[in-house]
Specification:
135 residues, two-stranded antiparallel sheet, 4 strands, XTBD, Partner of xrn-2 protein 1
């Protein structure tokens, strides 16, 4: 689908993946939803990981082009399960999109054992202190 864009006062053609439909107040972009979410499941993903990513993709499949949604879904799972950090704009976008998904996962997470990370120097110091008390 070709669109026109003005650059330096001249109209320039550009390609867009979706079809833009203009209304008075907003521009809507139709997105191809014929692709199969299941085809993006990888052999190494745990069930928990896949279900969270699948729920995210299903919730937003009609709002983003396929490639962008796959990327956002992976980022969402990386943030939720691995604690990854991304640039602020990405974190904000994913936070907004995540409001609609993951409620079951978040409830289960509340009852799971939480890991506590300790600096190696603190752990070594605690071990030394423990050895001194035992001697």
């Amino acid at each position: 689908m070709a669109g026109k864009k003005k650059k330096n006062g001249q109209e320039v053609s550009r390609r867009t993946k979706g079809k833009k439909e203009k209304s008075k107040d907003k521009v809507e972009m139709s997105v191809d939803t014929s692709w199969d979410i299941e085809s993006y499941r990888t052999a190494y993903e745990s069930i928990e990981h896949w279900e969270l990513k699948q729920e995210f993709m299903e919730a937003h499949k009609d709002r983003f082009p396929e490639a962008r949604l796959i990327c956002l879904a992976q980022v969402f799972v990386n943030i939720e399960l691995l604690g990854c950090k991304y640039p602020d704009e990405v974190m904000e976008q994913v936070a907004v999109l995540a409001r609609e998904v993951g409620s079951q996962y978040k409830e289960q997470k509340k009852t799971k054992l939480q890991r506590t990370f300790v600096k190696a120097s603190d752990a070594a110091g605690a071990k030394v202190k423990g050895l001194r008390r035992n001697n």
